[in-house]
Write the structure tokens for this entry.
Amino acid sequence: AQTVTQSQPEMSVQEAETVTLSCTYDTSESDYYLFWYKQPPSRQMILVIRQEAYKQQNATENRFSVNFQKAAKSFSLKISDSQLGDAAMYFCATPGSNYQLIWGAGTKLIIKP
Amino acid sequence: NAGVTQTPKFRILKIGQSMTLQCTQDMNHNYMYWYRQDPGMGLKLIYYSVGAGITDKGEVPNGYNVSRSTTEDFPLRLELAAPSQTSVYFCASSPGLPGQPQHFGDGTRLSIL
């Protein structure tokens, strides 16, 4: 069965510093995508970034970037210049069959002013 | 820009009551999903649909039913509410193409007392 593991239940970072959230996964798919979603206190699920597994280049979206290690099945999210608005739950997800998403348990990110 | 719309946003039910959570999307997406999110956890798939008239069970389908009579609508029915169904419910949709993310509604917070 496909699994997604986020080993850090909670992380805290000083405003303007950099933080990395880890995610490991297990999949039998050969071609797949990986996603990071953000869930702020408003409860909305917001796509942060996605990575295509067949691309060696790590995805980047402004202050958000990933470190994708396909052989290790690792997909960490780096947030640079952390801002107060980055405080949220962050979920890693990988597709299962029929374009379902398999979700990690999440990491709560706290930004210290 | 409606996207995925869920109603109601909050509801309290008594044990044994029934209700339907409504979900509609205006993006002409073929795939739709229902998830539940328990406190401090990631999302678990209840049911999904790959098109009108086609539905299938996810990871935690017991106690729920769905239907998909149109592309736009994907209601979730709870027949005999139980305290274990207290959760936040999310509806999502996607085009069903590789790499395309799921778009989420704002969620329904349901309490069974």
In short: Chain B has a mean pLDDT of 94.
